[in-house]
Amino acid sequence: xxxxxxxxxxxxxxxxxxxxxxxxxxxxxxxxxxxxxxxxxxxxxxxxxxxxxxxxxxxxxxxxxxxxxxxxxxxxxxxxxxxxxxxxxxxxxxxxxxxxxxxxxxxxxxxxxxxxxxxxxxxxxxxxxxxxxxxxxxxxxxxxxxxxxxxxxxxxxxxxxxxxxxxxxxxxxxxxxxxxxxxxxxxxxxxxxxxxxxxxxxxxxxxxxxxxxxxxxxxxxxxxxxxxxxxxxxxxxxxxxxxxxxxxxxxxxxxxxxxxxxxxxxxxxxxxxxxxxxxxxxxxxxxxxxxxxxxxxxxxxxxxxxxxxxxxxxxxxxxxxxxxxxxxxxxxxxxxxxxxxxxxxxxxxx
Length: 350
Description:
- This protein has helices at residues 54-103, 109-155, 201-204; strands at residues 2-17, 20-23, 29-34, 41-42, 47-51, 158-160, 165-170, 177-178, 185-188, 193-200, 212-217, 220-232, 242-249, 261-278, 289-296, 299-310, 315-320, 327-328.
- By secondary structure, it is an alpha+beta fold.
- It has a six-stranded antiparallel barrel. Strands 2-9-7-4 form a four-stranded antiparallel β-sheet, with no helix packed on it. A four-stranded antiparallel β-sheet has the order 6-5-3-8, with no helix packed on it.
- Helix 1 (54-103) runs antiparallel to helix 2 (109-155).
- The protein is elongated and about 155 Å long.
- The two termini are 20 Å apart.
- The model has no long low-confidence stretch (mean pLDDT 89).
């Protein structure tokens, strides 16, 4: 019986980043400048690159001129309204005098009718002028929207960092004509670095979220980086029969190299007390059951037992089927047979 035995599962994988982006421009043009290179840290909103934008700048200037013209048109229509209001007021005053004179027969009925007609015409002119204000306001709104659109397209000629990141790769150089959507940089968020480990399906069943793990990198084999299981893939590799496990590092290395090979040991349990037998000493092991030789009262006998966890040094935990007082033969030798008398010697005996 052994005490406090850690049961760990081994996985081999690579260093990855959960947030990694291949970014580019939303429009196409020739690259005018590139401000950063591979390995550099960038902050959110920082300018990374820019495109030649002379044509788009001209479109923006044209849109600004259209807005200025729309503003002038709106001012003119408002002035026309003021003029129409003044004409209407003058017509109404003149009409009032003529209608009073017509009542005293001082002027002809025809003159009175013409005066009333002038009022109606002036009122119609005012309505037209007021309508032209609405038309001018709509034209101004349309011109301003067109200006915002052209300004947005001009802004698309500048590539900015979407978040605090590290430049993984620069895919093009200045002068290259890029199309919309072509990747210019690959970025990663250094705060989302984790290890993607591939674990044999036969051993992955006891892995759960939150379990502690240890990671060793190929470039730093002398260091151990603690981590935690944060994601378990719900789809296994159908060819290699492996499950994908993601481990977030509690303490990450100072320099990250994506794709670097990493070894992971995940602690799935700690056995407070356990009888362990090397897998090589088990016959007919199917992943759960098998047969082992035991010594009882000085004689050999083979018994069927049930196994639990498997340690990283290829030993199996016996959880059921072991007779009381029996000693397991941990080192297989030739000539073992049922009922043969033997003498048990501890592995650490001289």
